[in-house]
Amino acid sequence: VWPTMDFMSQQALPVLLWPISCCMILFVGLLFTRLWLVSILYAAWWLLDWDTPHKGGRRNHFIRKSIVWRYMRDYFPVTLVKTADLDPRKNYLVGFHPHGVLVAGAFLNFCTEATGFSKLFPGLTSHLMMLTLWFRVPFFRDYLMNKESASSVLRKPGGGNILVIVVGGAQEALDARPGAFTLLLKNRKGFVRLAIEHGVSLIPAFSFGENELFDQVDNPKGSWLRNVQHRLQKVMGISLPLFHARGVFQYSFGLIPYRRPIFTVGKSILIKKQNPSQEEVNQLHQTYIGELCKLFEEHKAKYNVPKEKHLEFI
Q1: Residues 301-311: pLDDT tens digits?
Q2: pLDDT computed for residue 140 by the predictor
């Protein structure tokens, strides 16, 4: 298969890496062409539709099943590993780790059908939470429009929904590099409280290989580069890791990610619905960290992680 797919996959990835830039360029560029009315009409629609992401809406199965995502899956490749059946009558909250630079595992597993989510977990619908910032980007927001607020997903009657939160967020991307297993989790407890308040099972998920896709310019804590990145994150809401990997026709330098396999595995923790105290949130948070560590240790040998490597939490 690969001799016929490899070149197409490589050509698709640069576009996938820069969807935000492409959408902005398209929106602004049309204003200076005979099609300027398209951008004007879209801007009017954009304003009228401004709050739709918080209310839920237009899930597009055609886009989710696009062949583009299958090329992207096969490039790395990406695999969603099923470790247990999930009851489609219930709702679930998945904590996804690590963020990496691309969040490729979370995107392909839960935003598309490239890895066969619906076949592995029939009767369940996945929802990957995104930064509000991305819903302010013209055109790109309409692809993301199937994302809903966390609470609206978890309180849906009848179950059948999986809410996925990349717990470490954009800040964790600054520590994403090959061989790194550092997770920003020590003080991230809001998702735990959310799970308790809605009485949904909490699923720690680890994506082996997620940090192997890019090298990153050294930015140790306290360095001028890390300080600049933190300041930009506070202003812009996103982190800006200085990453690099390979090119299209050469392997020494470029912005195309390395071809490294990604395997996403998870494990469910049952939770009783209640109005939790901070102490109860702290206790479940520690249980979550313990289960995440067990998950990592149980599977790391299978995915070529050295025996001496362990998760580190900050």
Answers
A1: 999 999 999 99
A2: 52
* Residue 39: predicted pLDDT: 79
The pLDDT of residue 272 is 80
Task: Give the separation between CA 244 and CA 255, rounded to whole angstroms.
Answer: 5
> For residue 43, what is the enclosing H or E element?
helix 36-48
The whole-angstrom separation of Cα 241 and Cα 170 is: 9
Distance of alpha carbon 235 from alpha carbon 145, whole angstroms: 25
User: Rounded to 5 degrees, what angle do the CA atoms 51, 184, 13 make?
Assistant: 65
Residue-level pLDDT at 126: 92
pLDDT at position 58, please? 57
pTM value surpassing 0.90: no
The parts of the chain modelled with pLDDT lower than 70 are 1-24, 49-59, 130-148
**Per-residue DSSP letter, 174:** G
DSSP 8-state symbol, 257: P
Q: Which residues of 13-26 are buried (b: 16+ CB within 10 A; e: fewer)?
A: beebbeeeebbeee
**CB burial readout 55-84, b (16+ within 10 A) else e:** ebeeeeeebbeeebbbbbbbbbbbbbbeee
Domain ranges of the chain: 4-313
CB burial of residue 220 (10 Å; 0-12, 13-18, 19+): exposed
CA 76 to CA 261: how far, in whole Å? 5
Cα 46 → chain centroid: 24
Q: How many residues does the chain have?
A: 314
Dihedral, CA of residue 83, residue 89, residue 195 and residue 94, to nearest 10? 30
> What are 183's strand-pairing partners?
313
**Structure token digits, residue 50:** 């401004």
